[in-house]
Amino acid sequence: MTTAVPVPHQPVEEWHQPSRGIVGMACLITAESAIFVIFVTAYLYYLGKSLTGPAPHDVLDAPIFATVCLLSSSITVHFSVHELRAVRIARSAWWLAATVLLGSIFIGFTAFEWYDLINHHGLTISTNLFGTTFYSLVGLHASHVLVGLILLSLALIFSIAGKVTEHHAERLEVLSLYWHFVDAVWVVVFTVVYIIGR
Amino acid sequence: MLQFLHEWITTVDHKKIGIMYILYALVFLLIAGLEAILMRIQLAVPNNTFVSPQVFNRLFTMHGTTMVFFVGMPILFGFGNYLVPLMIGARDMAFPRLNAFSFWISAFGGLLLYFSYFGGSGLYGAGSAPDVGWWAYAPLTARVFSPGHSTDYWTLSIFLSGIGSIGTALNLVATTLCMRCPGMKLSRMPLLVWLYLVTGVLVFLAVSPLTAAQIMLCIDRYLGGHFFDTQAGGSAVLWMHFFWIFGHPEVYVLVLPAFAFANEIVPVFSRKAIFGYPAMVSATVGIGFISLTVWAHHMFTVGLGAGANAFFTFSTMLIAIFTGIKIFNWVATLWGGNIHFTTAMKFTIAFLFQFPAAGLTGIMLSVSPFDWQLSHSYFVVAHFHYVLVGAILFMIFAAFYFWYPKMTGRMLNDTLGSWHFWLFVIGFHLTFDFMHIPGMLGMPRRIYTYEADRGWAIWNMIVSSGAVFQAVAVLLFAWNLVRSYFKGDPAGPDPWDAWTLEWSTSSPPPSYNFAVIPTVESRRPLWDLKHPEDPDSQYE
């Protein structure tokens, strides 16, 4: 190795760049949005094209309560980040716990809905086009909720164990961005599946 | 030895991961090139029985899939991984461990694809590697028509490599936006970094739909879903849409890095700053947007209706304007420059001729009535190989000659390089210029043989003979890579008297890249350093 040409280092005042965690999450959200767009497109394209029953209006009920729970969890996670920023760690943990609880209620409702559809209405992923597109779109969203819940629970466990400090506020914020995204997707899925599609 | 392997397998250094990406792509380049040679032997003379029809179907499927997903993408990501942090004065990527994960999962995808030769048969004795074509149109991919596991290996390998691509693209974007050294404003970044930034965003928007479509295909094949099951009301055309929403932006994912190499090589060997930096950036962003709106020009023969055909004809033609801006800027950079005909520059100049030629046949095919005539013929095959080989592969070779000294500390041999260049140019033009002709005479793609009285025989013989030249040239290139690693002339940190930051550190760079994080004041920091009497920064 020969000697390298040194490039001078001068202190530059005010050199700010965006945080890599937030940029990385924004990229992930962009890529995930493209995946959801494809599934939503397939759902809309196949609306009413099933050759056999059951049809959406026969079996689907709008999960209003679950939706309210999921959407409010966006608010609670926001408060959790806010409290952590303000170094109120115990309050932050409580808001985090509320978020996990609300998300779990949502996923419980989905589980119950699927149980009902499969056992009482005979709708599975291979029944007809509605079954295929419904379970894959709602299931894709539910799997994202599950991933979010696992991550939020981990944060909660760390928080209870006293490992979380205000220095972790930005990490929690990155996680909260993901959670907001999952909620926003649910608004679209709810509209498409339970309003337009029914 | 064991420690050496352990060091490379567990590395999170962007330079090592970049080199692993490149080596892994080179191995697949040789494999997929061999598949191409086998196909050309089969087609060289009429009524040939060198390979069976089934084997021929597998060959073109594996050749296409490998070249796009396991040669093109990894080699370009490899160079991006290596160069982007160095060029913006960073010590590593934004997420080094994600980088290693992305590489290994992509590599695993490639191995999975080739494992289909052993595992594809499954319990059905249905034959080995996938034979559904690289776009795998429905309903051919349904269980009924593709029993066994070969199609599963195809879909899983693309799914995995897609996850790897998204991870690497995420890393490139985050690195570019968050890891720049002080003074490296967006408007001062080397154009290569800008082009990789746009490529990264295109990967999010283009590769994700393919990943989604592969999930749907898996649901169909494993869970009895009906997404693409035409018997249950599913639509084969929907798969075409999903595939080409990926497929066309993918061409730009591959070609933008090739443009990126040209943006660095043309100015250095013309001894001039790049002409029209802002125009280059905006043309790239323009290409990024418009490339998302052209996909159905692959589907003119489906019968989408006059309105849709007109829209996609128009948008396809529009993209030629943005690529035209780039061509003119490169030519203007050459204009009045002190041009140095190094091997890298020779490949770049060939690219500057061949890429517009490929673009012109692209404009011909964008006219939907013309496309109806030639769709699915060898004319189309010749057109896209002119882009993929004549533009992208040529620029990849140029990039090797340009940055190999930085990666290894040794120069590539110029005599071997000249042989490589001239043999490859001759072979390329023999193969792909003459391939247009049987296409216009009506020879469909993907046929395993043809009758002697069609008038295609002489052209196919010429096309196949060109493949021999290319094969010899690539082997010479591979030999040059190996030989120069041990015997090449020492390169020194800055063999080309270039201006971007990667040339300011030693060759190969230390694992931390820069002992002191540099500070930049213009687009050409090393020019400023070498010419303190006339720095670029005073013109900004």
Walkthrough of the structure:
- The complex is a heterodimer of chains A (198) and B (540).
- In chain A, 73% of the residues lie in helices and 0% in strands.
- Chain A is an all-alpha fold and 198 residues long.
- Chain A has a single domain (20-47, 62-196), classed as Four Helix Bundle (Hemerythrin (Met), subunit A), CATH 1.20.120.80.
- The mean pLDDT of chain A is 92.
- Chain B is mainly α.
- Chain B has a single domain (14-539), classed as Cytochrome C Oxidase, Chain A.
- Chain B has 15 helices and no strands.
- Chain B is globular, with a radius of gyration of 23 Å.
- At the A-B interface, helix 1 and helix 5 of A face helix 5, helix 6, helix 7 and helix 15 of B.
Q: What's the CATH architecture of chain B?
A: Up-down Bundle
| Total domain modules of chain A | 1
Please tell me how large the radius of gyration of chain B is.
23 Å
How many separate helices of chain B? 15
Tally of strands of chain B: 0
Taking the sheet with the most strands of chain B, its summary is: none
Secondary-structure map:
The complex is a heterodimer of chains A (198) and B (540).
Chain A: H1 20-45, H2 56-59, H3 64-85, H4 89-120, H5 129-160, H6 169-196
Chain B: H1 2-9, H2 14-44, H3 53-87, H4 96-119, H5 150-178, H6 191-223, H7 236-270, H8 277-290, H9 306-334, H10 343-366, H11 368-374, H12 378-408, H13 414-440, H14 457-487, H15 525-530
